[in-house]
Amino acid sequence: MIVMGLRLNLKTRLLIAYAVFMLITVVVAILSYSYFVLPGYVFLEHQEATHHVQRLVSSIDREIDSLNTFTMDYAHWDDSCDYIQTAEPAYIESNYVDQMLVDNHLSYVGIYDLTGSLLYGKRFDLVAQTQQPLIVTMYDNVLKIYAANYNRSLSGLFQSDDGLQMVAVRSIKKSDGSGEAFGTILFCRPLDTSYINNLARRNRLDIGLVSIAGGGQRHILEQITADVPVYIDEVSSERLDAFTKLSDLEHQPVVLLQVHLSRYLYMHTRTTMVYASSLALVAIMLLALFMGTTVRHMVMQPFKQLSHAIYHFRHSGDTVLPISLPSTGEMGGLVQEFRLLLTDLEESRVHQNFTREKSDLIKRVVPSAIFTVDRDKVITSWNKRAELITGYSATEMIGSSCFLFAKAPCQEHCGLFDSGQKKPITGRECTIRHKNGSVLTISKNADYLRDEHGEIAGGIECFEDVTERKRFEEALKWEVALNSRLALLSQSILQYGKNEIQVAEELLDYARNLTGSSEGFVAERLCNEQQVLWSSTQLFDDIEIKEGFRTIFALATGRGSLLHAVYDSTGGVFFNSLEKLHVEHLAAGVTKGIKHFMAVPVTYGGQVIGQVALANKDDGYSTKEVQAVEQLAELFALVLAQSNRSRKADVSGSDVVLC
């Protein structure tokens, strides 16, 4: 280790490492405390505050449910139903005395008929325990809300002239709760300071109600949502306030419930954690210092001895470490492991050299093209046979991508490194590019190359040039297909020789299948330059019928036509890529567009008596297709010549003029 040109010894390096370790430890401790420990305590504190608030809200809800149940006891009572009908004072005098309101902490009771008119009402001050003047319309809004859900119970909070009230409304019915309603009964219980103080004593919490009248505490209300029902305000390091809103019967906020919580436990725990972390950090520092000092004394001297021995070993060329080194104890074990390591390295070097020589020999003597690639598809070896087949030398290929010479399908999708492709790959046919630009067809085998850990390190491929074999196979396949169709057509001529249409249709099918054409026709030439169609695909949109024969219009004087081109030639003709020349006018009457066109003459006795025409082979026509169809046309010439003689007498004097 060199710092600013100075070479540091082991002792100095250990001190620097110790200082760096201490610095990292302190930084990690501070970051851990700031971003994990302290936020965790804050989260727990907020969770506890939220739990307390939810308990208080649940207590208020239970109080409202209790009031609702108490109201139901009076509403579902036959005496209450009778009072609606008779207004008997005895019912009021015996059931709604002042002591009943005090005992049940009620500030208001009201009995209404079905029209909402007050039959009896009592407003009571629970603090002074005296009856107050009645305000008839005080609870009209509650009755309006209840009217929308008549025959159901209604309970909740309501802001009245007497302050915030817990209200419960019930329909007056018979004791079994069945039948029609006779009226409505309403009980109120104040949510006042007395109730809040009692709730605080029961839960051992400091709580209070905060008014929101006049838009006060708007900033707190905006923080309380359905997702965050409790707002936490960290007032100081000693106090924390939690707020939630209490809503009325119309689900509008009427007051804030506030809980004051002491942060003593949080602050005490945080201080304890800081002290504990500091002590732990000091202990780690002392332990690290002790271990560093011990390691320096234990390791430094033996490694000096081993360093001198290794230096001697490197410069003397020995294959065995000096026997002066200790052979027992901790140092002896280290010396023994080092000796074994040297032995393994020597064996590995010998094995590696042998493997490389063996691999090079295989690549030289195997009569196939062989090359290897790494995981990035860069060629790492290229044998002589590969040079002969592709024209590329090993110097040109090693270090280059295999895409330099690969074509379909390897350029679009590499099968060797496709995990979904089963390995090894055998007999796969691909195309490659020769250095001179020609395209070769090869048959290849491929598989992964793996390292000593079994991981994929690259790939190996061997291939042979099968271009000539493929050409021979295709030529043989073509000859077999042509000869079979000639044989089938000959058989049809012998069987249906006098049926020109039957023979022509078979001829057209054989010619289209042999050449891969989608369109075509077979025609006989008439002396007036018209042509009789014996068979055709859906190629024409307007065919003239004369004497029962389908005919193609005669050629206009001085005008060329694809449909008559073969009659001006001594042999077959073909035209490719016609769509680029825009020659649709040269095929009058043809419905479909013509991309490629070929025609061969049907010749008998030195005269052209018809033609076989084909169109729209995918990749165009060549002399090979023309020569093949000419052989089929020669057979059809015999059919036309034979039928021509028998038809001349039958069509004399007609518009169809046979030559």
Task: Describe the overall structure.
- By secondary structure, the chain is an alpha+beta fold.
- It folds into 3 domains: 51-262, Beta-Lactamase; 366-465, PAS domain (Beta-Lactamase, 2-Layer Sandwich), CATH 3.30.450; 475-648, GAF domain (Beta-Lactamase), CATH 3.30.450.40.
- Helices cover 43% and strands 24% of the residues.
- The protein contains 14 helices and 24 strands.
- The strands form 5 sheets. Strands 20-21-19-18-24-23-22 form a 7-stranded antiparallel sheet. Strands 5-4-3-8-7-6 form a 6-stranded antiparallel sheet, with helices on both faces. A 5-stranded antiparallel sheet has the order 14-13-17-16-15.
- Strand 20 (544-546) and strand 21 (549-552) form a beta hairpin.
- Helix 12 (467-496) runs antiparallel to helix 13 and helix 13 packs antiparallel against helix 14 (623-648).
- The longest helix has 66 residues, at 10-75.
- The chain is flat and about 140 Å long.
- The chain starts with a strand and ends in an 11-residue tail after the last helix.
- Residues 1-5 and 653-657 have low confidence and may be disordered.
Features:
659 residues; alpha+beta; Beta-Lactamase; seven-stranded antiparallel sheet; six-stranded antiparallel sheet; 14 helices; disordered C terminus
Topology:
Blueprint: E1 2-3, E2 6-7, H1 10-75, H2 78-86, H3 89-95, H4 98-103, E3 108-113, E4 118-125, E5 130-132, H5 140-147, E6 154-160, E7 163-172, E8 183-190, H6 193-203, E9 206-211, H7 218-223, E10 231-233, E11 239-247, E12 253-262, H8 264-316, H9 329-365, E13 369-374, E14 379-382, H10 384-390, H11 394-397, E15 425-433, E16 439-450, E17 456-465, H12 467-496, H13 500-515, E18 519-525, E19 531-536, E20 544-546, E21 549-552, E22 573-575, E23 597-604, E24 607-615, H14 623-648
Antiparallel strand pairs: 1-2, 3-4, 3-8, 4-5, 6-7, 7-8, 9-12, 10-11, 11-12, 13-14, 13-17, 15-16, 16-17, 18-19, 18-24, 19-21, 20-21, 22-23, 23-24
Helix pairs in contact: 1-8, 12-13, 12-14, 13-14
